[in-house]
Amino acid sequence: MPPSSFRNAFPISNPGHSPTSSHFPFQQDDEITSKTTFLSFALHSFNALPLRRRIVLLSTFIIGVLLTAIMKQESLIWLLTATAGAAPILGWEQGSVFDYSGLRFGHDGRFQITVFSDLHLGDGARPGTDWPTIGVMDNVLWSEPGTDLVVLNGDLISCEWVDQNTANGLVDMIIDPLIRRNMPFTATFGNHDASRTCSTKLLADRMWSKGNSPSHQLTWTANSLGTQYEGVGASNYYIPIYSSSGSGNPELKMLLWFFDSKGGAKFDPEHDVKPEPESDWVSEKVVSWFKLTRDQIRADHGGKVIPSLAFVHIPLSITEAFRKSGQRTETTEPGISEEIINVQADDIPGGDLNFLQALSETEGLIAAFSGHDHKIDWCMKYSSTRPVQGFNPPTSANDMSLCFGRHTGYGGYSDYERGAREIIVQEDKLGQNIVDTYIRLEGGRVSGYVTLNSTFGLDQYPPVQKNKSWVNTEDQAAAEKSSFVTPSKPTSTSGDAPTSKATSNNDFHDGEGDANA
Predict the structure, then answer these.
(1) Quick check: is 2 in a domain?
(2) Which end of the chain has a smaller Cβ tally under 10 Å, C or N?
(3) How many structural domains is the chain composed of?
(4) Range of the domain at 350
(5) Tens of pLDDT along 475-504?
(6) Residues ≥6 apart with Cβ < 8 Å to 122
């Protein structure tokens, strides 16, 4: 059964998105000016509709004409009645300004995102780990049947080990189970997804061609900067989330923003030379696109603040500053914290501050979610009223949370239990900037539940357990030729719950991990 929240509406207009993008077959028409006649406006609106809507509207019109002739009724009255149902489609307001393809809150007013991070399929240093990773995804989705969208938040593949054809097959391995579930999915790319032999653009094209058809859309992975990929990446875009109520063109309630933090190496399969490194931060061009698009969408909605979430693979540098400051505790920001955090622009201090500035000045941005560091999975509050010691924040900062995902893949370093980050948004709480989030582990347990709200960072929660994985990652080489059987479906869903009693601060980290995580 398709998820109740799925909205399969192709765009009439797409602020900030270049019509030259190869990922979007539906192009914008010329802008309607104030001098447009009623007839040209009607033709423009009709041509901008998806094919199935045009067929329905035209069929309704023809049937109306035929019935009018047969019944000898007043034609004008009948035609007005027949086309009344098209008002939400042809309306001058939201539909003619913003009708970008997206998803909807469920009928219960709930929208849930499952975030898989750092799958690392094809990891040549840990052979035999691909199917265990798919098993983790299966177990998590079994435990979270309310999932409305799956986000693959970077490092899907260890592309330093594989060529493009192999990488395409590994992408299929990840997304085919989601397509069979009719589960909407989308991705950001990480540093391991880009190599001399592996192109993130081609990976995005693969997802788009397999997940979408002219009548059905399951994925949004794309580059909203048109045909420009050099230095900007292949996963910069947004997904609108619409209201659970209303037909035709329901109200835009939330935006999900996706950013490509790049890294890895530049694609150059024709030359067997030392790979040329790619910068590991969100490009200034992407930051400019984000600000322009964000402001245009807000203007199109009468200046209304649209709540939003952001996803990017490599975390912002303020997260490592927070870890080093000692301000984090096991009860205010519960989670594992077992390594130094590798961040955007790691070798260029302050190289990610323009991106941080753009996020923090965005009204209604509740949280940004990252992966990359396999032994970190907590959330923190970035607030001008509770500054991070030793970090000079940008000006015009609004409060927002920064969260890490859980290492999902059996590829990649770390032997902590695998899992995924869950994000639950209630439509009626969006105005209060409230989001619930936790880690769902492969065995079914919940870890690190917190509510991201105005008091997050002060509220008290129980410290998390630090269990190890089911598969001994130290002995992966012996598993290369072994077959994997997906573990039985988990039955235990008990886990951490909020509490008012604090425990001592224990922010241990061993500095292990992969500098190119």
Answers:
(1) no
(2) N
(3) 2
(4) 103-479
(5) 443 443 343 333 334 433 334 443 333 332
(6) 130, 157, 158, 159, 161, 162, 166, 167, 170, 411
